[in-house]
Specification:
By secondary structure, the protein is of the alpha/beta class. The protein has 2 domains: about 170 residues, 2-Layer Sandwich (Alpha-Beta Plaits); about 240 residues, Alpha-Beta Barrel (TIM Barrel). Helix content is about 45%, strand content about 20%. It has 16 helices and 17 strands. The strands form 3 sheets. An 8-stranded mixed beta barrel has the order 8-9-11-12-13-14-15-16, surrounded by 4 helices. It has a 5-stranded mixed beta sheet with strand order 2-3-1-6-7, sandwiched between helices. Strand 12, helix 11 and strand 13 form a beta-alpha-beta unit. The longest helix is centred in the first third of the chain and has 30 residues.
Length: about 425
């Protein structure tokens, strides 16, 4: 995603940090004059009801979380030459200059819709928002204001169509061929044929830069749609109720690979709410650990507060069960949204993982630096390690060192790499950190 779009001083949405309507129109003007542009307008119908039920502060929290999900999705799936903006109260614009096929643009919209619709925590309750999305391809030379007007008209039409979630601005039917719904069968076959690739995001010590381990990530190279990131992969799995099966598949593959790593390199695994929902998560992980021969004391389970919404006590009990055999627990994406400090007390935590948004501007914004320093101090007081993600330059790393952070990951040293590349990296030396 074009970083300049999010950081422009002229027009930035104060609540979400995304581009505002003026920046969006300028970006669309430039993209249209340069050639190809396609866009989608994601709206949250009847969002006023959320404000009425939870107050404006609650509604704002929901919008911040939706904005984060959209931005993360675009960063993972569309990447370069893209725009994310908030154009109105409950409306968000996603646009791209890439010549993506009509089919791919539609299934991206479908999967993004499911990503937004995942339950979010609000005042101790689970809230699910069902977005509706208007799609279009810009006309040659079309101005941004005209393009947005066309999207708004389709969005209004969608409000009157109770059964539709995605609609093209040209009035045509959904793109023919394979949509997000039809990917479910492909996913089951891909797992059976071991086509889901496991990549590893290396983690290094802040003090010294030694390799300490890696976070396991999944990617799917689909023959029709190309690369599908973990975010979309799990959204597709969620549609077909295959999340737990996919998680088990990834865990078994990742632990099997990591079992060959030299001691004491660690492996971090992300878990989802669905992993706990199917029951006996701890027992399942114990069996995978035993089958692969991976040492449990070298495994870290990364869990987000979002995962804990369904049944906090059951999740905490499962994590305590795993902690008894030496598995560590890290609270992931810490500092995003509105953190519930209950998790710091009730879970058997060994680490806090700071979201990339907390690291991004620490070298240039005193407030961001102060927030990071406060979180690091709190972690030390609770005897927790601090892991920072999204580290991209030496200035950020220097501040992490000063503030006493323990581990980092990011493109400063390495992006996600294949198992073979990580094994080669490990040959260069490992950390004594355990």
């Amino acid at each position: 995603m074009d970083a300049s779009v999010l950081l422009t001083a002229g027009d930035r949405d104060v609540l979400t940090g995304l581009a505002g309507i003026k920046t969006a129109q300028t970006w669309l003007d430039d993209a249209g004059s340069a050639g190809f542009v396609q866009a989608m307008l994601v709206s949250l119908p009847r969002f006023q009801a959320v404000n009425q039920a939870y107050g404006k502060a609650g509604g704002d929290r929901a919008l911040v979380e939706v904005a984060r999900r959209i931005a993360d999705f675009v960063s993972a799936e569309i990447e370069e030459q893209s725009l994310v903006a908030r154009t109105a109260g409950g409306e968000f614009l996603v646009a791209s200059r890439q010549a993506l096929s009509r089919e791919r643009w539609q299934w991206l919209a479908e999967v993004l819709g499911r990503t937004i619709a995942r339950p979010l925590a609000l005042d101790g309750e689970r809230l699910s928002l069902a977005p509706r999305t208007a799609l279009l391809r810009g006309r040659p030379g079309e101005r941004g204001a005209a393009l947005l007007d066309r999207l708004e008209q389709v969005a209004s039409d969608l409000q009157r169509r109770s059964g539709r979630r995605v609609l093209w601005a040209d009035g045509s039917h959904p793109a023919r061929g394979r949509s997000a719904a039809s990917l479910e069968g492909d996913l089951l076959g891909a797992m059976h044929r071991d086509e889901i690739a496991i990549l590893f995001q290396p983690q290094f010590t802040v003090s010294g830069g030694a390799l300490a381990g890696a976070e396991a990530l999944a990617r799917w190279e689909h023959p029709t749609f190309g690369r599908i990131s973990a975010e979309t992969l799990f959204a597709v799995a969620d549609r077909g109720d295959h999340v737990a099966q996919l998680s088990r598949h990834i865990a078994a593959r990742a632990l099997g690979i990591a079992a060959t790593w030299p001691t004491p390199l660690r492996l971090s695994l992300n878990v989802t709410a669905e992993d706990f929902a199917v029951g006996d998560f701890a027992g399942t992980m114990r069996r995978i650990i035993e089958h692969t021969g991976f040492a449990p004391e070298r495994l870290t389970i990364e869990i987000t507060e979002q995962t804990l919404i369904t049944d906090f006590e059951a999740c905490a009990a499962a994590l305590r069960d795993l902690a008894e055999i030496g598995v560590s627990v890290a609270l992931d994406d810490f500092g995003t949204g509105f953190s519930n400090f209950r998790a710091l007390k009730a879970l058997p935590l060994q680490a806090l993982k700071l979201d990339r948004s907390l690291v991004k501007d620490v070298a240039g914004d005193p407030r961001d630096r102060a927030i990071l320093a406060a979180m690091a101090a709190m972690a030390r007081a609770l005897d927790l390690k601090v892991i920072a993600e999204g580290v991209e330059n030496e200035a950020q790393l220097a501040i992490l060192l000063i503030e006493g952070c323990d581990l980092f990951q990011g493109f400063l040293r390495s992006g996600p790499i294949a198992a073979e590349a990580f094994a080669a990296l490990a040959e260069g030396g490992v950390s004594s950190l355990s």
